[in-house]
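WARN no homologs supplied; continuing
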Amino acid sequence: MHNRNKAFGDGEVLEAGMQAGLDGTPLESCPYPAGSAARVVWSEGWRCGTDEPDVVADQVKIFG
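OK structure emitted
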């Protein structure tokens, strides 16, 4: 069985996205190419790190 975490450096891509969101970096600044799995993971991290109201509302729906 394939370990997805290993494919993304044990969460490094996700954590980098979260840090970017916390730092206020725009989502469009993602360093990974459009359509790549790494871009999806980075973007999810960014969404977790940002405090934009619509993103937070989505998180509440998922985790609340």
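DSSP finds four helices and no strands in the chain.
OK
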